[in-house]
Design brief:
heterodimer, A: about 325 residues, mainly alpha, two-stranded antiparallel sheet, 15 helices, 4 strands, about 0% strand, B: about 240 residues, alpha/beta, Rossmann fold, globular
Chain lengths: ~325, ~240
């Protein structure tokens, strides 16, 4: 077993794994023959997978049931979107500003929350409420009208395109970065602390881990990543409105992370991809005939997975690894 | 001067007050026992020393420094370490990972190898099982692991909360032997909270009896053992 002070940093195996994974993903648009609708769906799936992988830092590693993924994502989205729509500011500057605002909200919410020891279901409730509160605040300021971003045929400066491929590749890079950060955390002291906090917060505190600080760090990293994803998302959809703050999306992100297996980023990405594909597929097939029925089927599938594989999809990956010797190393 | 001293401590949880005017001293190299019935405030006393409760008034002095307003992780850095009640090992981590998690202060991290060797010497069984998942250990082994994990931060004072809780009588004796060994060989100072009054007084140097958040009796452990009131209250002989 490696000494922990020597594994600060990302193991080479994981690093190459990410690159191979990203290369495989980048062939997908060609396989879909650059069909606009299919590439849009693929973009959506990669976006959700990145969001779930970012959630894994607070939910999987730190063990906090955070339902506010869509809040941080939407903050990135509305800031980037409004700056572009009203002031013509490029998203390349809009996204960093969105990140700063999302970070501010994360600290303003996270600091008192962790300071007063709010955890478990109460933390979940608080974060779920955060999405709704932010949605109402946005509604009070901008009203219920939606703002449309200016359209450009092909502009890297304004990140507006008439095709989805550029966004697809941007999000593949984003997913690779989120994965890299996940592995980096897992193999660092921060990862050790978060692990201990998730397992037993009181014991971790008694051992001298500054529980509040490290939970806040995890929250800040997660909020940053989610708001960057949101900034890209708004350029894809081209619409800004209070509906960006979507409580349902916050919950599904957490559900996907849990189904993937807490603490396993591979499981999180896998479950994000599978469940989002399934959701889109069901919406396209039975959902179009009987509106809403795709959510019913989706819910049933979640229950079945929960019963059959309570430890999450990550256990499937472990199973495959055991069967294929050269993956073990 | 005492290594650790509580001066007129009043503490509790939020509005709910548990400790009333508790004063106690722990001298270097001693085992000090706190005994008493359920709900007397024994665990609260330890948690107050670690800074995990609400302190209303009073002062806690460690090594000549007031630590009253210090957060928990700073106190661990200074050399206090607690083994929480009910063991609370990290169940999904291996024994080794549990131990590493215990060495998180900067001072301890640098000397990780040395401490690990020292801990494995005291608990040879943990060395055998270092790659085992902690959740699969027996109760006694898990308790050993919890103590070993607390030792990884190289504390001067070890706070032990009910180490014998839920263990078989034979294992309880082993645990008490280990506690004694920690004082005699590893030169640790130990503050022990226990319900096994007789065992605790046998190995302790000094003892406090806590009832309803107040110290009702204190003295050298050997003398306290002969105290009529205590005998009557706890039927220890």
């Amino acid at each position: 077993m490696a000494k922990p002070n020597k594994i600060l940093g990302i193991p080479r195996r994981n690093f190459y794994g990410i690159i191979v994974f990203a290369l495989i993903l980048s062939t997908v648009p060609a396989l879909l023959r650059f069909n606009t609708y299919y590439v849009y769906l693929a973009t959506d799936i990669i976006l959700i997978a990145s969001l779930v992988a970012a959630w894994n830092i607070i939910g999987g590693y730190a063990g906090q049931l955070d339902l506010a993924a869509s809040a941080y994502m939407a903050l990135g989205a509305v800031v980037t979107g409004n700056l572009l729509a009203f002031y013509g500011l490029t998203p390349w500057l809009g996204i960093p500003i969105g990140v700063l605002i999302a970070l501010g909200v994360a600290v303003a919410v996270g600091y008192p929350t962790f300071r007063f020891g709010i955890k478990e279901v109460w933390y979940a409730l608080l974060t779920a409420a955060l999405v709704v509160i932010l949605s109402r605040i946005y509604w009070l300021i901008y009203g219920s009208t939606e703002t449309y971003l200016p359209t450009y045929e092909w502009s890297w400066f304004y990140l507006r395109f008439n095709r989805y491929e550029p966004f697809y590749y941007m999000l593949v890079v984003m997913l690779a970065i989120v994965l890299w950060i996940n592995y980096r955390i897992r193999h660092s002291k921060l990862g050790y602390y978060l692990n201990a906090i998730r397992e037993d917060e009181l014991a971790a505190e008694a051992l001298g881990i500054d529980v509040r600080r490290y939970k806040l760090y995890a929250l800040m990293i997660y909020a940053t990543l989610a708001s960057i994803i949101g900034g890209i998302y708004v350029c894809i959809t081209g619409v800004v409105g209070y509906r960006n703050f979507d409580p349902w999306l916050g919950i599904t992100t957490a559900v996907m992370g849990i189904v993937g297996g807490l603490g396993s980023v591979e499981g999180a990405v896998m479950s994000g991809m599978i469940l989002r594909t399934l959701e889109d597929y069901l919406r396209g097939t039975i959902g179009s005939q009987y509106p809403g029925s795709h959510l019913l089927v989706y819910g049933i599938i979640l229950i079945v997975v929960g019963v059959l594989k309570p430890e999450g999809l990550a256990s499937l990956i472990e199973y495959v690894k055991k069967r294929i010797p050269w993956l073990k190393s | 001067m005492a290594l650790l001293e509580l001066k007129n401590v009043n503490a509790g949880y939020g509005e709910f007050r548990v400790l009333f005017d508790v004063s106690a001293k722990v001298e270097r190299g001693q085992i000090v026992a706190i005994v008493g019935p359920n709900g007397a405030g024994k665990t609260t006393t330890l948690r107050t020393i670690m800074g995990m409760t609400t302190l209303y008034s009073g002062d806690i002095v460690f090594n000549g420094r007031s630590i009253t307003r210090m957060p928990t992780h700073k106190r661990v850095e200074l050399g206090l370490s607690m083994v929480p009640e009910g063991r609370r090992v990290f169940r999904t981590l291996t024994v080794y990972e549990n131990l590493v998690a215990g060495a998180i202060t900067k001072r301890a991290w640098e000397k990780l190898e040395d401490t690990l060797e020292m801990v494995y010497n005291i608990f040879p069984k943990l060395k055998e099982r270092r790659n085992q998942i902690a959740g699969t250990l027996s109760g006694g082994e898990a308790q050993m692991l919890a103590i070993a994990r607390a030792l990884m931060s190289r504390p001067d004072v070890l706070l032990l909360d009910e180490p014998s809780l839920g263990l078989a009588p034979k294992i309880v004796i082993q645990i008490f032997d280990v506690v004694k060994k920690l004082r005699d060989e590893a030169e640790k100072t130990i503050l022990l909270v226990e319900q096994h009054v007789k065992h605790s007084l046998e190995i302790a140097d000094y003892a406090y009896v806590l009832e309803q958040g107040r110290i009702v009796l204190e003295g050298e452990a050997q003398k306290l053992m002969k105290d009529e009131r205590l005998k009557k209250a706890y039927l220890i002989f």
